[in-house]
C-alpha cells in the first residue's frame, strides 16, 4: 500500500478551509515530498524551512524565526546521511511534523522542539546539548517525546514510552502535541511498511493516540488519523465509503445552495459572518451511512458559520430557526456547556422547502481555532506573566491551565500500576471513556468538585477523593439521599461519602464490578490480592432480621370521630402528636391513621375514599417508628437500646437487618411518655458511636 493509498483525503475537495488574512491555507494532506524538498536535489535542503516559516508567520507575525533556523541546522546536520524507509532523507520527517504544527498555530517553542524531536533518540545529540543551545523548556519537551531504550525495557518499551510521554504531558501538554503530529506523518507514509506492522501501528493509533487527540481537542489531527486507521484496518468498508463519496461528487450537491441561502439571511439581518460547506471525513460518512442506511445529498457535509462574538452565535441561531424549519432534536449548546476537551459551538439542523436537512455549526473564529487545534491553539500556557503581576514562587510546581481532569486522574493511577502490561491495558480502557461528568463532593469539613468518566459510581468518587482511605467507605449520600456505593453518578450530582471508623475495613469482593476508573480498580485489586480470604467469600445462607417485639399495640392516643371504631396508627408514617392526621376506614371497620402528607393519603383520595376526622387525646404519650442507620460494630444494639431506655422510652418492637457493606439498619417502634421528647430521643440515638442517621419511618 502506497502512502497515497493510505491517505483517504487526498482528493482536492476533501476539506477546503476558510481563508485567513487573505491567504489560502496549505492543504496538509496534499503536501508531498516535492513541497518539502522543492526543486533541489535530495542531499541539499537550503529552502526547506521556508514552508514552516511561512505557516508560522501566518499565525504569529512577530515570531522570531532565528530559533527555528538554528534548530533546523542542528537537526539537518545531525540527521544527515539517515534515510527513511520510503527512501527520503530523514530530515523530511521532522520538517513535515513541524509544518503540521505550524499550520495549526503552534508557538515557536513547540516548533523548535518539533524540529529536534528525534535528534536525541536517533543521533549523537544529547539532551545537555539541546538544553545549552535552546533552553530548559525545549529540552524538557524533546526529552518527553524521546522513546525509552528498547535494549533496557524489551517488550515493555512501548508502554513505558507512552507512560513517560503522559507523565511529561502532565507538566507540558506540548509534548503530546508533537507526538500526535509525529504519528500523523508516520501514518501518512505507512505504506512502505509490511502489512502486519501497518496493522499493529494502526491499532495503537486507534486505541491510544486518537482518543488522546480527541481529549486534547485537536480535531484536525484526530479526523485524519481516524481516516488513515480506517483505511488500514477496514479496507473493504473504506473502499465502499470512498465509492459513496465518489458517486456523490458526480451528483448535484444541495449544500452550496443552502449555504448561500444562509448567507443571504444573515446579510439581511446585519450579522457579519463567514459561511462555508465542510465536507465530512471518511469515518464520519461511514458512521452516518451505518446509522441512516441510504445517504441523502446533504449528509456528505455540514455548514459552518463563523462570527466574531459569542452573542453573534445566538443571533445566528435565532435567524436560522426563524427563516428555516429547525430540527429541534438536533440542537446542542456547547457554548454554555463546553465539552471536556475545550470544544465550543452551537449545533443545529434545519430543513429546507425542498426537503433537505442540513446540519449547521455556529462558532466564533476563536472557537474555530480551538475546535481545530485544541490545546495547540492556546499557545504557550507557561508564558512569563507581565511585570505588573507578582511572579510565582519558583519552588512551586507550575500550574498548567490546559491540564484537564482526565489527565490528572491518569497521572494519579499510573503511579499505582508498576506492571507495564497492567498500565497498557488500563490506559486503553481509560481512553475508551469518551465523556466526562462533574460531581460535587462534601465530607463535613470541605467541599469541591470531582471530574469522573461518564458511568462512574460512588466507589469511583470515593477513590478519587480519598485514595486508599476509600477502602473503608461503606455508603454514600447522593443529593441528600442515602444510597449504595454501586449507584452510578450523573453530571451535577452532590455526593457525600461515608467512611467506617474501623481502620481494618476493606472493599467488598463485588466492588470491581461497579468501579469504572483505573485508580479505583487498581486500588481494589491490590487490596483484594493482599486479603485473599475476602476476595472469594464463602456462601452463607441469608439471615432473617433479628426482631424483638413487645406486647403493646393499637392506636395510641389517636381518636377517630366514628363511634366504637378501632383506631390504628399507620406503620408507613407513624404519626405522633401534634402531627396533622387523617383516618380512613379499612377492612373490618378499623380506622387507620396517617400523617396528612403521607403518600397513602393521596392514594386513598385518588381512589375516592372519604377520610375520617381524627384528633389526639389530651394525654401526651404516643407511639412512633424510627429508622437508625449505623456502621456495624460489636455491642451496637445494646448501646442503642440503653440510649433509648435512658430517655424513658419503651421499646415496643425492634428489627435489626443483617449488615450490608458494613452498614446496619435498625427499625424501632417506640412508646414515648410525651411526644415533645421525640427530638431529644433522636439526638440521643444519633450520639451513639457508629450511628450516622436517625429518622422517622
Give structural notes.
The protein has 697 residues and is an alpha+beta fold. Helix content is 41%, strand content 17%. Strands 1, 2, 3, 4, 5 and 6 form a 6-stranded mixed β-sheet that branches. The chain has a 5-stranded mixed β-sheet with strand order 8-7-11-9-10. The longest helix is centred in the N-terminal third of the chain and has 21 residues, at 195-215.
Fold topology:
Elements: H1 33-37, H2 49-59, H3 66-79, H4 92-103, H5 108-115, H6 119-122, H7 127-134, H8 136-145, H9 150-153, H10 157-171, H11 174-188, H12 195-215, H13 219-233, H14 235-249, H15 255-268, E1 274-279, H16 282-292, E2 301-307, H17 310-323, E3 325-326, E4 332-333, E5 346-351, E6 357-364, H18 365-373, H19 405-414, H20 420-431, E7 436-442, E8 447-453, H21 458-466, E9 473-478, E10 481-483, E11 494-499, H22 511-514, H23 518-530, H24 532-535, E12 546-549, E13 558-560, E14 567-569, E15 581-585, E16 591-595, H25 599-606, E17 614-616, E18 622-631, H26 636-646, E19 650-656, E20 663-672, H27 678-686, E21 691-696
Parallel strand pairs: 2-6, 7-11, 14-16
Antiparallel strand pairs: 1-2, 3-5, 4-5, 5-6, 7-8, 9-10, 9-11, 12-19, 13-17, 15-16, 18-20, 18-21, 19-20
Helix pairs in contact: 2-4, 3-5, 4-5, 4-11, 5-8, 7-8, 8-10, 8-11, 10-11, 10-19, 11-12, 11-13, 12-13, 13-14, 14-16, 19-23
Amino acid at each position: 500500500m502506497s502512502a497515497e493509498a493510505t491517505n483517504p483525503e487526498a482528493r482536492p475537495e476533501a476539506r477546503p478551509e476558510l481563508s485567513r488574512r487573505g491567504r489560502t491555507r496549505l492543504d496538509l494532506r496534499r503536501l508531498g515530498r516535492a513541497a518539502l524538498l522543492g526543486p533541489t536535489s535530495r542531499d541539499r535542503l537550503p529552502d526547506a524551512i521556508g514552508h514552516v516559516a511561512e505557516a508560522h508567520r501566518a499565525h504569529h507575525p512577530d515570531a522570531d524565526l532565528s530559533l527555528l533556523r538554528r534548530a533546523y541546522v542542528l537537526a539537518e546536520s545531525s540527521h544527515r546521511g539517515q534515510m527513511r524507509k520510503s527512501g527520503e532523507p530523514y530530515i523530511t520527517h521532522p520538517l513535515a511534523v513541524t509544518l503540521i504544527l505550524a499550520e495549526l498555530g503552534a508557538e515557536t517553542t513547540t516548533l523548535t522542539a518539533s524540529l529536534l524531536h528525534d535528534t536525541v533518540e536517533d543521533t549523537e545529540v544529547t539532551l545537555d546539548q539541546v538544553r545549552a543551545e535552546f533552553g530548559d523548556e525545549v529540552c524538557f519537551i524533546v526529552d518527553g517525546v524521546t522513546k525509552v531504550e528498547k535494549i533496557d525495557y524489551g517488550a515493555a518499551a512501548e508502554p513505558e514510552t507512552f507512560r513517560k510521554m503522559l507523565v511529561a504531558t502532565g507538566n507540558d501538554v506540548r509534548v503530546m502535541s508533537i507526538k500526535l503530529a509525529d504519528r500523523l506523518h508516520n501514518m501518512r507514509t505507512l505504506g512502505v511498511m509490511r502489512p502486519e506492522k501497518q496493522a499493529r501501528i494502526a491499532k495503537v493509533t486507534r486505541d491510544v493516540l486518537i482518543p488522546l487527540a480527541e481529549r486534547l481537542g485537536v480535531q484536525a489531527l484526530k479526523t485524519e488519523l481516524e481516516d488513515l486507521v480506517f483505511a488500514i484496518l477496514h479496507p473493504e468498508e473504506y473502499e465502499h465509503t470512498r465509492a459513496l463519496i465518489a458517486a456523490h461528487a458526480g451528483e448535484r450537491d444541495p449544500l452550496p445552495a443552502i449555504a448561500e441561502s444562509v448567507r443571504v439571511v444573515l446579510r439581511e439581518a446585519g450579522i457579519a459572518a463567514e459561511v462555508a460547506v465542510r465536507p465530512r471525513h471518511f469515518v464520519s460518512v461511514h458512521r452516518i451511512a451505518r446509522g441512516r442506511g441510504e445517504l441523502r445529498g446533504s449528509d456528505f457535509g455540514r455548514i459552518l458559520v463563523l462570527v466574531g462574538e459569542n452573542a453573534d452565535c445566538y443571533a445566528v441561531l435565532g435567524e436560522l430557526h426563524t427563516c428555516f424549519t429547525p430540527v429541534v432534536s438536533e440542537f446542542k449548546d456547547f457554548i454554555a456547556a463546553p465539552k471536556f476537551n475545550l470544544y465550543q459551538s452551537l449545533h443545529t439542523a434545519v430543513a429546507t422547502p425542498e426537503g433537505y436537512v442540513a446540519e449547521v455549526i455556529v462558532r466564533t473564529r476563536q472557537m474555530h481555532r480551538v475546535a481545530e487545534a485544541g490545546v495547540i491553539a492556546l499557545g504557550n500556557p507557561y508564558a512569563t506573566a507581565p511585570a505588573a503581576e507578582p511572579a510565582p514562587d519558583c519552588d512551586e510546581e507550575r500550574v498548567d491551565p490546559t491540564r484537564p481532569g482526565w489527565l490528572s486522574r491518569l497521572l494519579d493511577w499510573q503511579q499505582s500500576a508498576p506492571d507495564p502490561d497492567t498500565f497498557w491495558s488500563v490506559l486503553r480502557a481509560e481512553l475508551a471513556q469518551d465523556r466526562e461528568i462533574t460531581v460535587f463532593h462534601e465530607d463535613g469539613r470541605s467541599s469541591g468538585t470531582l471530574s469522573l468518566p461518564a458511568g462512574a459510581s460512588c466507589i469511583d468518587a470515593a477513590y478519587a477523593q480519598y485514595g486508599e482511605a476509600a477502602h473503608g467507605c461503606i455508603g454514600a449520600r447522593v443529593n441528600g439521599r442515602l444510597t449504595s456505593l454501586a449507584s452510578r453518578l450523573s453530571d451535577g450530582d452532590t455526593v457525600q461519602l461515608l467512611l467506617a471508623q474501623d481502620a481494618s475495613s476493606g472493599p467488598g469482593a463485588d466492588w470491581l464490578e461497579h468501579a469504572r476508573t483505573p485508580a479505583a480498580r487498581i486500588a481494589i485489586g491490590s487490596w483484594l490480592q493482599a486479603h485473599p480470604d475476602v476476595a472469594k467469600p464463602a456462601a452463607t445462607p441469608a439471615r432473617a432480621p433479628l426482631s424483638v417485639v413487645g406486647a403493646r399495640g393499637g392506636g395510641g392516643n389517636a381518636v377517630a370521630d366514628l363511634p366504637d371504631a378501632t383506631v390504628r396508627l399507620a406503620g408507613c408514617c407513624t404519626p405522633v402528636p401534634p402531627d396533622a392526621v387523617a383516618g380512613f376506614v379499612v377492612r373490618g371497620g378499623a380506622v387507620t391513621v396517617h400523617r396528612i402528607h403521607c403518600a397513602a393519603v393521596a392514594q386513598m383520595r385518588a381512589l375516592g375514599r372519604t377520610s375520617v376526622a381524627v384528633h389526639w387525646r389530651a394525654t401526651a404519650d404516643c407511639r412512633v417508628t424510627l429508622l437508625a442507620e449505623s456502621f456495624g460494630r460489636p455491642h451496637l444494639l445494646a448501646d442503642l437500646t440503653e440510649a433509648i431506655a435512658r430517655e424513658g422510652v419503651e421499646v415496643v418492637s425492634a428489627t435489626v437487618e443483617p449488615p450490608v457493606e458494613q452498614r446496619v439498619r435498625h427499625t424501632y417502634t417506640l412508646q414515648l411518655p410525651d411526644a415533645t421528647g421525640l427530638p431529644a430521643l433522636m439526638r440521643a440515638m444519633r450520639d451513639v458511636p457508629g450511628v450516622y442517621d436517625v429518622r422517622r419511618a
